[in-house]
Specification:
This protein is an all-alpha fold. It has one domain: Amino acid/polyamine transporter I, CATH 1.20.1740.10. It contains 22 helices and two strands. A two-stranded antiparallel sheet has the order 1-2. β1 (273-274) and β2 form a beta hairpin. The longest helix is centred in the C-terminal third of the chain and has 35 residues, at 372-406.
């Protein structure tokens, strides 16, 4: 099958879904453009800062994208590209998009609070505490993983390190002129994008070569600062500008596919069992961010909801970002499917899915005159930039969750862990400690933990909609499916690691399994009970 047809089918499906299903969801939930958002009612100039839709779309998309929608689909290609492609389209539209949109909107209606706070308001303090503890531990894994990945990337590609450091300086300048000096967003964006690509050129000219340990230390200091400073100084502008890297990469990939039109040569379907992995449930856990990701609900309810200027923006930012990520995931599976098994094994063995992706996009770009080496280097830089974005966003989310976990409105003197500097320091130190140790030992659990978060996020929003007297039927199938899939995957993971006598990877899945059962049972009781009066939310 022609790869161009594959990407065009996915884009058409996503556009139709955004116009029709996205609008239906907004109507069912009562999205109100006249209602003031937390960015205005609780504006503090640090976390609660209204952002223009285009800027916030860039920030949110940059934060949720990372390397997930690239790594997941390519890793799942062992089952064949057709089941992966079907799950990307169906999952993005009816699962991931609904979760992202719903989580963001629910958070906006709960004063910009996290999903944990939404759970407390609708399922009680016990549910909130359990979810918050689970989410925070998952974020420690995110911090450890991306710190390690970014440090490795900077050591392997010093040019990416130079460019990333220059991005930070550029972003601070962009934020200052747009937010403090009232500079035009359009003109500033044009100048910013030009300077962004200049940073890439300078990075290639002056690569920054440092040791792995040095980079880990620098990254930990960076994410601490990025987590406690106002979002307009660094987070918003850097993510906004970085989004243009990904847009350029997507455009370059689609243009290359339009010209080259390579055929999908790998098998459309292989087998239901590859090694010790069964297509069900492992396909749906492996694709992860390419179709649905629990991390997205933490981003949407953690940082993005505090920056929504108008409730109507929740559809564009929440639902729209997930559909764009679906396009990225589609391109990722194409880069794995247009090459033979031998070439795929060679590339994956020398750099993993990111190398497969970078090689594929670099090759596509040669069709319109971009030298392969430059194209591949550009893609590698873009992917590393987004890994860094996910890293500091995860740190800020960890800080939010810890502050909310220990905050007690009835006490005049709060626990020191509610202080943003203290909570950030604890999160950074523990995440950094995991990054310095063999975090890869517990990495297989992360995929299941991420999808479990998605199922629990879907459940929490469904409970809120039920108690508010609104239609929650669009959550029933997604949340049931994700909980079943994740629990089966955890059982499979526990049995496999028990046989290998890797008991630490038996303990973590068991803990997650119990947590999911408890929260799912609480949510089920609320959803099935008769609501006497809708909540005024």
């Amino acid at each position: 099958m022609n790869s161009l047809l594959v990407v065009l089918i996915s884009i058409v499906c996503f556009v139709i879904a955004y116009v029709t299903y996205g609008a239906w969801l907004a109507k069912q939930w009562g999205v109100d453009p006249s209602r003031k958002t937390p960015a205005h009612t609780r504006g503090d100039g640090v976390d609660y800062v209204p952002a223009k839709p285009a800027v916030l779309l860039g920030h949110h998309f940059a934060s949720i994208a990372g390397a997930g929608p690239i790594t997941g689909p390519i890793a799942a290609a062992i089952f064949g590209w057709v089941p992966v492609m079907l799950w990307i389209i169906v999952g993005s539209i009816f699962f991931g998009g609904v979760q992202d949109f719903g989580s963001l909107f629910a958070s906006v209606r709960h004063d910009g609070k996290s999903i944990g706070e939404v759970i407390e308001a609708n399922m009680g303090k016990t549910g909130k505490k359990l979810f918050a503890a689970f989410a925070w531990l998952t974020l420690l894994l995110v911090i450890a993983a991306f710190t390690n990945i970014v440090a490795n990337t900077f050591v392997a590609v010093p040019a990416a390190a130079s460019a990333s450091m220059l991005f930070i300086v550029l972003s601070i300048g962009f934020g200052y002129f747009v937010y403090q000096r009232g500079a035009s967003l359009g003109i500033s964006s044009v100048i910013g994008v030009i300077l962004l690509f200049a940073c890439i050129a300078l990075g290639n000219m002056f690569p920054l070569e440092l040791s792995w340990n040095t980079w880990v230390g620098i990254l930990l200091v960076y994410i601490f600062v990025a987590s406690v400073t106002p979002v307009w100084i660094l987070l918003q502008p850097r993510d906004y500008l970085n989004s243009f890297l990904l847009y350029a990469m997507l455009i370059g990939a689609v243009l290359g596919l339009l010209i080259m039109r390579p055929a999908m040569v790998s098998p459309a379907f292989t087998t239901f069992k590859v090694g010790s992995q069964w297509l069900f449930p492992m396909l749906f856990v492996t694709v992860a961010c390419g179709a649905i990701s629990g991390f997205h609900s933490l981003v949407g309810s953690g940082t993005t909801s505090k920056q929504i200027d108008n409730e109507m923006d929740t559809k564009l930012v929440g639902y729209g970002s997930m559909l764009i990520e679906g396009v990225l995931a589609t391109i990722a599976i194409i880069t794995a499917a247009y090459i033979g098994a031998d070439k795929f094994a060679e590339l994956a063995g020398n750099g993993g899915p990111t190398n497969v992706f970078s090689d594929g996009i670099g090759n596509f770009m040669t069709s319109f005159g971009i030298p392969f080496a430059i194209g591949k280097s550009f893609v590698a830089l873009a992917v590393s930039a987004f890994a860094l974005t996910s890293l500091d966003t995860g740190t800020r989310l960890g800080r939010f969750i810890m502050q909310e976990f220990f905050y007690d409105a009835s006490k005049e003197k709060q626990n020191p862990l509610t202080n943003r500097y203290v909570s950030t320091m604890v999160t950074v130190i523990l995440g950094g400690w995991l990054a310095m140790t063999s975090w890869s030992v517990i990495w297989p659990v992360f995929g299941s933990a991420n999808q479990l978060l998605a199922g629990l996020a879907l459940l929490s929003v469904a409970v809120w909609l039920k108690k508010s007297g609104k239609n929650y039927s669009m959550f029933t199938i997604p949340m049931t499916f994700m909980l079943v899939v994740t629990l089966l995957a955890l059982i499979q993971l526990m049995l496999a690691n028990m046989a290998a006598e890797n008991y630490i990877l038996v303990f973590f899945p068991a803990l997650l399994f119990v947590l999911a059962i408890v929260l799912a049972f609480q949510g089920y009781k609320i959803i099935t009970e008769r609501t006497e009066a809708p909540l005024k939310k």
